[in-house]
Amino acid sequence: MGINIALDGPSGAGKSTIAKAVAAKMQYVYVDTGAMYRAVACYMVTSGTDLDDTSAIIGKLNEIAIKLEYKDGAQHVILNGEDVSEKIRTPEISMAASKTSAIPEVRAFLFDLQQTMAKENDIIMDGRDIGTVVLPNADVKIFLTASAEERANRRFKELQEKGDPSTYEEVLRDIEQRDYNDTHRETAPLKKAEDAIEVNTTELDLQQSIDEICRVINERI
Ligand code: C5P
């Protein structure tokens, strides 16, 4: 059993950037569970599945094989043999993942893979339900937040750098919609675990956020 760090929080709080940096610094494996949900959504979108047709989505889960591979410390998501790590980072897939992740069968489908990775490695795993559902016995649980406006700001800049035409208002609306979806779904909604430490990064830059998370972890392990 390795050391398990659970990092949860809403969309755009900086979980993946921070988790990647902390993993590199502490020599943990970084597991991005959002990427797994995105890969499932990507399959559904690519195969033309109606995202409102829950039984069609459930029916297609057995056509999907997801693997995580690591090259130079970076996580790659392999969907049926294809590296989709880049392809899953679009606003369309973000919204599709937010929808399909509410389906309990989709969550159950990814749960084993997530738990197995945590058993086999020292990991920092980010998501929405890691501290509450996937790794309830994690050594350290962190709940990372920032205001919706600040999260939209950061995501907007990232998308602009990639040449994505989305406006700030669209990005903010998407974030608010995904917050709503994640906190209101019945199965494994986004919420702070009782024993999680909350870190708010609204006023922190990236380096300060990384330092604060490392401090919180080092204090507890
Ligand atoms: O973290 P990221 O934005 O990449 O996640 C994509 C979507 O997957 C989220 O909007 C959320 O609905 C879902 N998700 C989830 N549970 C997780 C990780 C992600 O429901 N553990």
From TrEMBL:
The entry's keywords: Acyltransferase, ATP-binding, Cytoplasm, Kinase, Nucleotide-binding, Transferase
Domain of life of the organism encoding this protein: Bacteria
Swiss-Prot/TrEMBL GO biological process terms: phosphatidic acid biosynthetic process; pyrimidine nucleotide metabolic process
Keyword ATP-binding applies: yes
Segments traversing the membrane: none
Coiled-coil portions: none
Molecular function per GO: 1-acylglycerol-3-phosphate O-acyltransferase activity; ATP binding; CMP kinase activity; dCMP kinase activity
Residue numbers binding ATP: G9, P10, S11, G12, A13, G14, K15, S16, T17
Localization per record: Cytoplasm
Keyword ATP-binding: yes
GO cellular component, one term: cytoplasm
Sequence similarity: Belongs to the cytidylate kinase family. Type 1 subfamily.
Protein name: Cytidylate kinase
Species annotation: Ruminococcus albus SY3
Gene name as annotated: cmk
Shown residues within the full chain: 1 to 221 of 454
